[in-house]
Amino acid sequence: MWFLLEMAVVFGIFAVFAKTPKLIPSPIQNIFEAYIDFAKNMIEENMGKKGMKYFPLIAGIGLFVFFGNLLGMIPGLESPTANINTTLAIALLVFFIYNIEGIRAQGLGNYIKHFFGPIKWMAPLFFVLEIISHLSRPVTLALRLFANMTGGEILTVVLIFLVPLLVPLPIMFIHFFQVFLQTYVFMILTTVYIATAINEAEH
Q1: pLDDT tens column, 89-148
Q2: How far is the C-alpha of 131 from the C-alpha of 28, rounded, in Å?
Q3: Cα–Cα distance list, 182 to 30, 79, 116 (Å)
């Protein structure tokens, strides 16, 4: 339910404020343009111009995570990103996409080859470590976002019930900072994982 509400909010904001950009931008349009520039610069710094084909994916994930995080700050609403099923689904999406793109860019043989490392006699050890490293990525992506959003919501709610006046405000500011921080972390890690997969051949 919260997932559908978030999607309705995101599409509604775009339909109302971003459908027809104006020559003299409104404050909302300025925010959208700043976000687009931020995502574009992050992608180009890590992947170059060729990485812009992943812009819809990375920018879309950023919007979903941000608004999902933000919903949890509204009293009575629950953040979709405070549900492990949601965060794991996004993390698995990133996991499959960066592996598929790596195979597409390098070929299956070359992509698997880099799992064995540069030292032949240590190849079995490198292979095991690389597999563990790759499998841990979606788990850590999902758990990091889930734990931070869930912890922030629980702490805020508990403090509001215990001390309903001004004391919870600092915790709410910290939670609000986490909304931005966890969005950035998810976006930059997605970008780095894809960049590493498609650029391995150039190394």
Answers
A1: 999 999 999 999 999 988 888 888 888 877 788 888 888 998 999 999 999 999 999 888
A2: 44
A3: 22, 13, 32
> What single string gives the DSSP state of each residue in the chain?
-HHHHHHHHHHHHHHHHSSS--SS--HHHHHHHHHHHHHHHHHHHHH-GGGGGGHHHHHHHHHHHHHHHHHTTSTT---GGGSHHHHHHHHHHHHHHHHHHHHHHH-HHHHHHGGG-S-GGGHHHHHHHHHHHHHHHHHHHHHHHHHHHHHHHHHHHHHHHHS-SSTTHHHHHHHHHHHHHHHHHHHHHHHHHHHHHHHGGG-
Q: Which residue from 83, 59, 61 is spatially nearest to 71, judged by alpha carbons?
A: 83
Sequence letter at residue 134 = H
Distances (CA, A) of 149 to 70, 83, 159, 167, 181: 9, 9, 16, 20, 11
- What is the Cα–Cα distance from 71 to 80, expressed in whole angstroms? 8
Please report the pLDDT score of residue 14 as a whole number: 67
Where residue 203 falls among pLDDT bands split at 50, 70, 90? very low
| Longest distance between any two alpha carbons in the chain, whole Å | 64
Q: Residues 39-54: pLDDT tens digits?
A: 999 999 999 888 999 9
